[in-house]
Design brief:
284 residues, mainly alpha
Length: 284
């Protein structure tokens, strides 16, 4: 009974996170609309809102599991989860502006402002609902204190891993599954020029790695578990959640193939990032 109660409580908290995410999207859109930055606060259909709500509940479940394992101040929790949400979803939206421009209905800078507001409010909800109490500060290892140049090069290696995985697994997926969908522009998909793809991914790669740096500085566990946890975070938040956003507009086979591709890209990047960039005081 106690286990069932905990599961129900955890699920309800995740649903609350989902509601906060949706409400924050609407409120941020309204604010930007009143400022004249977008034409309307929201023109999404109920079906897409349903998928977005499901995606945000998955986000709450995932981040909630890890938030319970991190002891930090409230502001640190907001930084950790806000970075993961904003930089992952923001990088996906940047890519979407070129690969699915019909689905990006507002200028990218305005969209990023909206998502920043949403990320902060959602991160605050995750922190208040899931983080261990009382909130307390802790000493963390500063990656720049002794060998900042070494940390910088490790970060570049992690970003390079993403770019390599993106091209290797993306090319395979395109050749085996997704090419017909891009050629027929299913769901508004298109293939940008090769140079544009390279530039976009060179921007996205460090953003994806940077998204988990605050998490790696505060979370303490052994090296292997750190790597696996980081891989799962990047796969779910940077992969599953954005795919669920598009579940109502893209064919199921395309979503499945893209899910496999993103797992190979994001999990690999997260695993290497967790292994190379985790705090120095963890166990080995």
């Amino acid at each position: 009974m106690l286990f069932v109660k905990r599961v129900m409580t955890f699920s309800l908290k995740s649903i609350v996170v989902g509601l906060v995410f949706i409400i924050a999207q609407i409120l941020a859109g309204m604010i930007l609309g009143l400022l004249g930055l977008i034409r309307s606060a929201s023109n999404q259909g109920s079906a897409m809102l349903g998928w977005m709500f499901l995606a945000s509940v998955v986000m709450g479940l995932t981040l909630g599991l890890f938030a319970k394992q991190v002891n930090a101040r409230l502001i640190d929790h907001v930084l950790i989860w806000g970075s993961i949400i904003f930089l992952n979803l923001g990088s996906v939206m940047l890519e979407g502006a070129y690969f699915a421009p019909e689905q990006v209905t507002m200028p990218v800078p305005v969209l990023l402002v909206q998502q920043f507001i949403v990320a902060i409010l959602t991160a605050l909800a995750v922190s208040l609902l899931f983080a261990s109490r009382p909130f307390a500060g802790k000493n963390i290892s500063n990656p720049f204190s002794q060998n900042g140049l070494g940390f910088f090069w490790r970060l570049l290696v992690c970003a390079a891993v993403y770019v390599v995985c993106y091209y290797v697994f993306g090319t395979l997926n395109y050749a085996l599954v997704t090419r017909p969908y891009y050629e027929t522009h299913a769901g508004g998909l298109t293939v940008p020029p090769a140079l544009t793809v390279l530039v976009v991914e060179l921007i996205r790669a460090p953003l994806i790695v940077l998204s988990v740096v605050p998490f790696l500085l505060f979370h303490r566990t052994n090296r292997t578990r750190m790597a696996v946890n980081t891989g799962l975070i990047l796969f779910i938040i940077g992969g599953i959640v954005p795919l669920l956003f598009q579940a109502g507009s893209l064919p199921a086979i395309l979503l499945l193939a893209s899910g496999v591709e993103i797992f190979l890209q994001n999990f690999s990047t997260g695993f290497v990032s967790g292994w190379l960039l985790g705090g120095s005081s963890r166990e080995n």
